[in-house]
Amino acid sequence: xxxxxxxxxxxxxxxxxxxxxxxxxxxxxxxxxxxxxxxxxxxxxxxxxxxxxxxxxxxxxxxxxxxxxxxxxxxxxxxxxxxxxxxxxxxxxxx
Length: 95
Fold this sequence. Notes:
The protein is of the alpha/beta class. It has helices at about 50-60, 80-85, and strands at about 15-20, 25-30, 35-45, 65-70, 90-95. The relative contact order is 0.22.
């Protein structure tokens, strides 16, 4: 067995999505004053209009990484991926 040494990557502006059937919860963390971090949590419906509002909000905050978690197959939403990709956001699934 080999020992791997991963390089640490610091993401300054990140969002995490917890996706359900009817809604998703989004937590955004961005730099604050000094060495502090600012965090905001919002809930969105999983309908196209709400996903567009979510995408615009993430874009306005300069989010560069979006990670997703879902307990079912809701993460496989092509609409979610297409909406995000259309706004320059590319969600990544977390284990």
